[in-house]
């Protein structure tokens, strides 16, 4: 695949905030951070997580198999790199320190308040996966694979706008870097055009189980076998 370069390792979930902030977890819940060096690409970080969200500013959050929530503080306290945060989530994503979203096992949607003592505000709607960008952009998909973009900062009466398409996974780096995976594993990139009668998605070669998009245009994906790929389709072939 000319559009993707394979990176050594095996992961079951991946998140990218930027070219230099890429995290993943494997099938055994081990946590890995990208070293920015493909010859020896991953460093194991203590802990156990089932999903992870990495932001361009270095912010990283995760949830474990028991739906417990953690924020990474290993750059501040190496003895205990994860701080437990009250709540229960099955999926989480971070666009920045102040743009953190998650969904729980009942598909309820939560946004981080930036205040650990009362950390979550419930947002109307129901989603199974969510993606948050550095610029405040948020997208989600529901159990029926319908696609939604958050507009609650513009229209509080209807915080989600349905966008044509069918996706089971979504990743948001910014308003203009949105990627998804459909139920068959096909990869799609948002065209930045919702216009009626126009398909807002362009299909990108490859097959994925999870996808990650950074604020700077960085994109990674993993396939059903846990193989890891970084997007190079925006560079000379």
From TrEMBL:
InterPro entries reported in the protein's UniProt record: Beta-propeller_rpt_TECPR, Tectonin_beta-prop
Alphabetical keyword list: Lectin
A Pfam family this chain is assigned to: Tectonin
Family affiliation: Belongs to the tectonin family.
UniProt name for this protein: Uncharacterized protein
Naturally occurring in which organism (per UniProt): Streptomyces katsurahamanus
